[in-house]
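ESCALATION

Customer reports they have been waiting on this structure for their group meeting. Please prioritize. Original submission:
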Amino acid sequence: MAFSLALIIVLGLLFNKIFEKIKLPGLIGMLLVGILIGPYCLNWLSVDLLRMSDDLRKIALIVILLRAGIGLNKETLKKVGKSAILMSIIPCLLEGSAIILMATWLLDFSIIEAGMLGFIIAAVSPAVVVPAMLDFKERGIGDKKGITTLILAGSSVDDIFAITIFSGFMGLYSAKHVSLWLSIVNISVSIVLGIILGMLVGLILFMLFKKFSIRNTKKVLLIIGIAIFMTTLENFASNIIPISSLLGVMTIGFILLEKLPNTAKGIADKLGKVWIFAEILLFVLVGAKVNILVAFDSGLIGLVIITVGLLFRSIGVLLSTWKSGFTFKERLFCVIAYIPKATVQAAIGAIPLIMGVPSGELILAIAVLAIIITAPIGAIGIKNGAKKLLTE
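Update from on-call: job pushed to the front of the queue and completed.
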């Protein structure tokens, strides 16, 4: 396993630098490394590391969301509040619904199978979007009108919305007495409980950091440890009550910024250093999940379904930012920022296949194809779009 980690670090850094040199986002290079050395190509990664990959990717996501929470300014969040709520729901709902219609028509899927596919694909990737928005915030790009804050908040809840509806369809398939309407109610419950949990933990940490002198490095380790406990609590309580632990993690960062702004800045700096390693792990391991041969099995139909889904997602973004006070260029940037797929599709794309869903292999193929197409296009679009569509 040590050799596999060394490969990931060295090749991840190398390809990241190469792609930045040719004016492309470094994450594309890291995804490519994962595909090349993963089990579906050269197979250089140890089985032990691949077994741990879900947990390692979750830790990397925790680092991202903590940084995102510290990047959410309360005044700016108030300014974009309505649009942020709409961005959390409407684009995902329109994309998922469009894919359901397309899958039942083109692939002869049942409504339940189409629903699984629709809301696997409908989740935007915080792993691609959040680091870019944080970088723009630090450089003052698009931050004056709260565009980066809007996308940070909206993209994080978008994931929760998509995963919860997907879980509802999985429950219906498994013949559990789970109605789709109940799943939709669960979305609201999980979001509220996640925020409450994050606020409670954030306030406890605030009192702890105010009373005791603790180095920022140890503060970061403590917060990450507690955040991992929170995600474990979500899994443990999943059959009893839904809790969005990742939204809670982001809320911790928000509370610390409000209560201890100077401390939060120091924590953010340390998290930025941790992210250098976490980013490599996240994108290389996401790439290792990608089976290109499976992706090609979905063929032209898969490409059509993904394209139609993105079209409806884009309409949803434009509707959500209508009357937001943004210019058309700024709204167009929001559309581009909502393109990338990666993390959620890699994490849950294979679940229908594991559960024995007849169309599971095709669902996985389209999920993988969505990563291959949208992650590079979205990452490049975000990087170049910011220069042309946003102001410093």
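Sent to customer with the following note: The chain has a mean pLDDT of 88.
Escalation resolved.
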